[in-house]
Design a protein that fits this description.
This protein is largely without helices or strands. The chain contains 1 helix and no strands. It has one domain: Roll (Ubiquitin Conjugating Enzyme). The N and C termini lie close together (11 Å).
Length: 63
Amino acid sequence: MSFPQNYPNSPPTVRFTSEMWHPNVYPDGRVCISILHPPGDDPNGYELASERWTPVHTVVLLI
């Protein structure tokens, strides 16, 4: 897990280092879930703003 300089305003990034297959894990290990996407509108229109990262979320919520 990596934290950006402007955390908690921006979400951390999560990456698995061991090889695995999961529909929410890219081949390079990056995790793709709504709560880890930056705040704001989804350019693809699939996620609600309430599903995306907000500064009140904590790392515990991700686990």
